[in-house]
From TrEMBL:
Official protein name in the record: Homoserine kinase
Cellular compartment(s): Cytoplasm
Function as written in the Swiss-Prot or TrEMBL entry: Catalyzes the ATP-dependent phosphorylation of L-homoserine to L-homoserine phosphate.
Gene3D superfamilies listed in its UniProt record: 3.30.230.10, GHMP kinase, C-terminal domain
Domain (GHMP kinase N-terminal): residue spans on this chain: 64-141
EC numbers for this chain: 2.7.1.39
Organism: Domibacillus epiphyticus
Gene Ontology biological-process annotations: threonine biosynthetic process
Database matches in NCBIfam families: thrB
EC primary class: transferase
Length: 300
């Protein structure tokens, strides 16, 4: 009998301001994959967000699954998958990382690879180039990591008790374009400041000191000063959210989504303000996903 299962993988945000290419946070938007071993590769997409993606072994999930199995010397058997997603593509919400995590998890299950968490992280990091989004999608909650070339290191931090509000513009911003506006190098003063602010950010989250964390989130020097010109909603949203009690507002990943972190109970009010002000944007009130990928159904 063929192996099958229904897998849910969470979306994620990266950076949280100064934690550039290092800090990730998973939340409750999901890529859902109903997968069954087959004699051919076939992908069906039931969500409009996924329209236009490959329907054969060129699909990113298939590419990752085959590579994952090959690293263990196993040939990945074909499978059919039906996908649904509420993760907007090319919006800085970890859609590609969720697909990569799905490919790793599917290969691990269907090919019985018995991968360790460290192996899953290293595989994901090789595809992504940084462990923030992929770490959050693989393990849930808040993560802090570093890519060291052929390997990566990652630790889970306590899941923050906060409201998350995502302001999603109607336009895409490709990661490559967002990276092209960044400087090739930073002077020593800025590098020291950026590193110190990021250290303080992690320490504040470890102590559940969200006021301090919020101040640090808005002191990035690595990317937001350069990317904010690409996202017209960013600075007005930051000011509006601050006036309504938010801890901080940052660019989610490479953008264009703007992410606001607020005290519990204040998210709804900020979301309503966003809807009234940014008519052409989608506004999402989100919660942290602390568990990561979940096999909801599993069969042999």
């Amino acid at each position: 009998m063929s192996k099958s299962g229904l897998l849910k993988v969470p979306a994620s945000t990266a950076n949280l301001g100064p934690g550039f290419d290092s800090i990730g946070l998973a939340f409750d938007l999901y890529l859902t994959v109903n997968v069954t071993q087959s004699d051919r590769w076939k992908f069906s997409h039931r969500s409009a967000l996924l329209s236009g993606l490959p329907e054969d072994e060129r699909h990113l999930i298939a590419v990752v699954a085959k590579k994952t199995a090959a690293l263990r010397g196993v040939e990945m058997a074909p499978f059919e998958a039906v996908l649904e997603s509420d993760i907007p593509l090319a919006r800085g919400l970890g859609s590609s990382a969720a697909a990569i995590a799905a490919g790793i998890e599917i290969a691990d299950k269907l090919a019985n690879l018995q991968l360790t968490d460290a192996e899953k992280l290293n595989i994901g990091d090789q595809f992504e180039g940084h462990p923030d989004n992929i770490g959050a999608s693989l393990f849930g909650g808040m993560v802090c990591g570093v890519s060291l070339g052929e390997t990566a290191e990652l630790l889970k931090l306590p899941s923050p008790d906060i409201d998350l509000i995502a302001l999603v513009p109607p336009y895409e911003l490709k990661t490559e374009d967002a990276r092209n506006v960044l400087p090739a190098a930073f002077d020593r003063k800025d590098a020291v400041l950026g590193s110190a602010v990021s250290n303080m950010l992690v320490a504040a989250f470890m102590q559940h000191d969200y006021e301090t964390a919020g101040r640090m989130m808005e002191r990035d020097v690595f990317h937001e000063p350069y990317r904010k010109t690409l996202i017209k909603e960013f600075m007005p949203a930051r000011e509006l959210a601050r006036n309504h009690g938010a801890y901080a507002t940052v660019i989610s990943g490479a953008g264009p989504t703007v992410l606001t972190v607020a005290p519990r109970g204040k998210g709804q009010g900020i979301a309503e303000q966003y809807r009234a002000t940014f008519n052409d944007c989608n506004v999402l009130l989100l919660n942290v996903d602390s568990t990561g990928p979940k096999w909801i159904q599993s069969g042999e």
